[in-house]
Inverse folding.
């Protein structure tokens, strides 16, 4: 990597070789698994907001968004424990457990007789996503080592969100022909079955790769070594370390605006007179650009540094949200969806890579879990905040407020985060 001072890694005392080329087969298998993880989330993106209004007749946006609130709280909390559990028991058992937890979700979404069932399904889905997605992130970090961490996170998140986008688009078309239930949720059941089978039969444990990296790791700064307790790691990641805390708040705001997009965009587009097919297109374009863009931005952050992409991405997202608030037609919203996806692509894998840069391999999984606790807590904050504002002042006002918060988050990263940590992490 041009300008990098990182040494190339050879097998450590555990016999584990670090690097993308050395672990390509297992890495690509994990990419496939994470695409399936994304697909289980994508089954909801187009259909559930419409199910809330058309099937369960929820008039208040705050009530309709309770499923995102439930999802964000359960996923955020599970992210935190996923890091600790994967350090204690290994990555693979946590991944398999996440798939097992997901089994009842499509059944509850299809047959749930009340909105409470849908909310409960999203509590379970949040637990599953916290275990499966967090673990695939950790496993890829374990395999590649520090040299291609941005590329690894770009591929991981691209797979996940292309899975979200493809399923959101597909379920929109299924719903337009066959109704909101049960058809749109049948692909999710298939994804869970395939993901569980691959994880049990073909995925291999990667914890020993992290152990091999830790043997040669030199901390970026004093006080960031291996012997830290859970409380110290939480305080560092959340508040004390400038870079880690800046990344954590940016992740939270990013998913705050994603929670808004998930819950209110389909309703906004439908109430403007767009059919389910066009709503599905707009709902899918945002995560599709987000997913595909990460194939470029993750690797780019390995060369340019993390901070410039994070700051620029948050500001692009803010501009895109402002355009959604001002828009009144399909063409304007399509442009906004593309911009929102591009801005999120700049941010999403880069934030994860930045956590991996600073955190010691011995506690990196726990730091990732804490970051993802804050980040996915943004779903809950976004659902509550945007629902309250939309009920009081309308959806465009809610979008405008979130746009302002997103811009402020980017400015905070510019002020607080250090640059070039990725060049000195080992």
């Amino acid at each position: 990597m041009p300008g990098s001072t990182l040494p190339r890694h050879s097998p450590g005392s555990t016999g584990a070789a670090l690097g993308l080329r050395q672990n390509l087969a297992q890495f690509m298998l994990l990419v496939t698994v994470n695409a399936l993880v994304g697909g289980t989330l994508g089954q909801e993106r187009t259909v559930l907001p419409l199910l809330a209004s058309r099937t369960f007749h929820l008039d208040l946006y705050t009530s309709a968004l309770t499923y995102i609130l439930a999802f964000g709280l359960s996923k955020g909390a599970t992210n935190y424990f996923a890091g600790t559990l994967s350090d204690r028991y290994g990555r693979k058992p946590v991944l398999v457990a996440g798939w097992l937890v997901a089994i009842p979700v499509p059944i509850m979404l299809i047959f749930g007789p009340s909105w409470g069932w849908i909310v409960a399904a999203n509590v379970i889905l949040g637990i599953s996503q916290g275990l499966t997605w967090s673990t695939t992130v950790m496993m890829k970090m374990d395999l590649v080592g520090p040299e291609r961490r941005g590329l690894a996170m770009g591929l991981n998140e691209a797979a996940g969100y292309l899975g979200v986008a493809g399923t959101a688009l597909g379920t929109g078309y299924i719903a337009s022909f066959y109704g909101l239930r049960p058809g749109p949720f049948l692909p999710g059941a298939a994804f869970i079955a395939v993901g569980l089978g691959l994880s049990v039969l073909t995925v291999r444990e990667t914890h020993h790769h992290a152990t091999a990296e830790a043997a040669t790791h030199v901390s970026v700064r004093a006080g960031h070594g291996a012997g830290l307790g859970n409380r110290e790691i939480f305080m560092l990641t959340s508040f004390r370390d400038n870079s880690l805390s800046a990344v954590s708040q940016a992740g939270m705001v990013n998913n705050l605006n994603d929670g808004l997009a998930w819950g209110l965009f389909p309703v906004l587009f439908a109430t403007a007179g767009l059919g389910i097919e066009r709503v599905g297109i707009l709902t899918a374009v945002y995560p599709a650009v987000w997913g595909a863009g990460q194939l470029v931005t993750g690797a780019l952050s390995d060369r340019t540094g993390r901070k410039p992409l994070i700051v620029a991405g948050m500001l692009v997202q803010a501009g895109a949200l402002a355009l959604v608030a001002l828009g009144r037609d399909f063409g304007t919203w399509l442009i906004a969806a593309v911009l929102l996806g591009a801005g999120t692509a700049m941010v999403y894998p880069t934030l994860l890579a930045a956590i991996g840069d600073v955190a010691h391999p011995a506690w990196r999984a726990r730091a990732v879990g804490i970051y993802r606790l804050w980040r996915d807590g943004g779903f809950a904050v976004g659902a509550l905040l945007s629902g309250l504002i939309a009920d009081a002042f309308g959806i465009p006002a809610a979008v405008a407020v979130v746009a302002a918060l997103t811009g402020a988050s980017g400015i905070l990263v510019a002020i607080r985060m250090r640059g070039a940590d990725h060049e000195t992490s080992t």
User: Anything to note?
Assistant: Confidence is low (pLDDT under 50) at residues 1-14, 421-426. The chain has 17 helices and no strands. The chain has one domain: 26-423. The CA atoms of residues 223 and 236 lie 10 Å apart.
